[in-house]
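Page 47, continued from p. 46.
Same chain as before, 387 aa.
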Amino acid sequence: MTAYLAAARGLAPLVDTLRDRFDLDRTLPPVLVDAMHAAGLFRMWVPQDLGGAELDPLSFLTVIEELARLDGSVGWCAVIPAGYARLAGALAEDVAREMFQGSGRGLLVGTLNPTGKAVAAPGGYQVTGRWSYGSFIAYGEWVLGNCITQDASGPRRAEDGSPELRLCLFPRDAATVFDIWHVGGLRATGSNDFEVSELFVPEAYTIRLQEFQPPPLRPGPLYAVPMTSTFVSCIATVALGIARAAIESLIEIASSKTSAGSATVLRDKALAQADMARAEALLRSGRAFLFDELGAMWNNAVAGRSIPLQERAQVRLAAVHAAQCAIQATDLMYQLGGGASLFQGGRLERCFRDVHAAGQHVAVSPLSNLEPIGRVLFGLPPGMARF
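Result:
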């Protein structure tokens, strides 16, 4: 992890020089993407025998947190392809090598929203669908679209009666991309819609999801950890990095900022000192809860133990809580910054936009998650597929 963490920190001067372009371009500049690729930051979860690092989850998230501290969009654009790279563990060896060890960067992007249709055909599936939130798709080489599987009789059903889901992976050039990403926060993620129509995808380039988990074909604890648990943790960790940047930005502002009619700088005011303490406590407690729960899950995976539903609920709860703590900490800093927080291009203004955008993601939204988590804590089934 140390080398990747140092590489992430080493990007700070480049990010600072390019930051003004982020909102204008609505995607990361190519020179930054090249630097991230050269540092191996997209390959942290690629299997070792395919030339990747196959980092443990806590080390992986520590690096992502640092990238998000540089800028929310940088962290987001790193975690999407780097996180999806663990799907190599659910692909046949030759397909995984083609995607992740070929001549390109091996960037897999896309979305887990099941808004596509995969109709069974000889040797594979005819895939049609339009998916939203295709983050970083301008740089993706491979795209995944989650689909409801169908055959001649209609939608296939899983054992629990829910629609059978299948991740379909195809070259990005096969998809039509729609430039719709005109948003407030995480603006440089380029999270545009994409679409395919009647595209044939061979069976080997698809992954059936069983309880929203890709069955692993490759040994190793990384592939035994539930995909949903790592996914929600990834999204929450981006929010944690953004909040850390907000605290650092306020500290810088507070050393010289004074209010009208007062000669006292902000850092010397009791209210500012108390709110800074609150923000630090929020951020550290949210992070500790998430890393503790995910760390416990990882220890079970390393030991070859099964991952119980209660443990998955705790990781999901920790991710939701961490994201909410990050939002609250950022809000405290934004309020303390006063008028200095308002100006477009300022770090606090960007952190405020970005952390609230991250918090809207279904993976960490209290509206989408607290009820099923509470059901599991009561000993009931979660009542949702992607748990």
